[in-house]
Amino acid sequence: MTEAATRADFSAIRYAQVWEDADVLVQALAPLENQTCLSIASAGDNALALLSFAPAKVVAVDLNPSQLACVELRGAAYRALEHGELLELVGSRPSARRAELYQRCRKLLSSSAAAFWDARAAEIEQGIGGAGKFERYFKLFRTRVLPLVHSRKRVEGLLAGGDFQRRETFYAKEWDTLRWRLLFKIFFSRFVMGRFGRDPAFFRYVEGSVAERILARTRYALTALDPAANPYLQWILTGTHTSALPFALRPENFERIRQNLDRLEIAHGSIEEYLDTHPDLRFDRYTLSDIFEYMSPENYRKLLERLILASRPGTRLAYWNMLAPRTRPEELAARLRPLDGLANKLFAQDKAWFYSRLVIEEVVA
């Protein structure tokens, strides 16, 4: 079993959305058509995004059964609802009928997933995209901290975006106040984030100031990138999506995902356990979130070796570093080569800006 399973709590929804930019991910793993993919499940957004490119198979794996219940409900919503109704259920659009929409999806759920969501009527009413610990952490920031720093009008001014010069000027003159920096560093400190956002076990291999790194990346997101095109920023600051949607929720991708839902397999357990029980299966693409920074360098290396053994030549791995640096160790140089040029190009576009690096590596033939 993976190291993280022995240290972190996996008994509740940790992420009700996937806080990784699928626009970046699908380019990192292209081409995806007819490929066999393995994805960390989380809330399902990345696995669903892959489906829009007609892969042969997508296996969504997670240690946390609550996350798999999120994936199941997302998949059921694509089958049972129309696009606008899906957005209502998630919380991307206002709705007074989420309980009704859930009932239409419920008949497509397994008994365990139905029991899970039946016990969470309040979360459904508020929009399932806000049901996770990480989303509640952002809600706390949005409702308790942000109003101490910036008015609603100023938040709207930020999210209006504009050209680069307008964004730079707005950030410098309107947003980057002393109070902003001080409260940001407190709220996104290792202690507060570990208590209210991420599991404290996820910081085991992190060194240095957490808040300083995230603040620097946040400045990049608010200036170099356009807030008007950033659904992740919009949800954090407003609790919904305003002028932008994540890849899997966009109307142009809805039907393609719906048509390929039969290619999605949901698996409970660790990646290692899945590979052990499917020894003959070979993968072409891996999307691995940021799982490696929850592991020691030695366990990271061991899992990379397992993944290589379950791969075909040319298989690609994509994963993020948030706070702990993890890239292919030198002893695997003959078997795994970095695609740093592509990774750096895509990372410069990454709208889920709080990561410190995108890593793309390819299995050597």
Q: How is the topology of this model organized?
A:
Elements: H1 22-29, E1 36-40, H2 45-51, E2 57-62, H3 65-80, H4 83-90, H5 98-106, H6 111-118, H7 121-126, H8 133-145, H9 152-159, H10 164-175, H11 178-187, H12 190-196, H13 210-223, H14 231-238, H15 251-259, E3 264-268, H16 271-277, E4 283-287, H17 297-309, E5 311-321, E6 336-338, H18 340-347, E7 357-363
Provide key terms for this protein.
365 residues, alpha/beta, Rossmann fold, seven-stranded mixed sheet, 18 helices, 12% strand, globular
Please characterize this protein's 3D structure.
The structure is a single chain. By secondary structure, this protein is α/β, with parallel strands linked by helices. The chain contains 18 helices and 7 strands.
Proportion of residues in extended strands: 5-15%
The quaternary structure here is single chain
- The fold-level CATH name of the largest domain is Rossmann fold
The total number of structural domains is 2
| Average residue-wise pLDDT | 93
Overall helicity: 40-55%
Number of helices, where a helix is a run of at least 4 consecutive DSSP H or I residues: 18
Unreliable sequence segments: none
Shape summary: globular
CA-atom Rg in angstroms? 20 Å
Biggest sheet layout = 7 strands, mixed
CATH superfamily of the largest domain: Vaccinia Virus protein VP39
Look at the structure and give the CATH class of the largest domain.
Answer: Alpha Beta
Number of strands: 7
Strand order of the largest sheet: 3-2-1-4-5-7-6
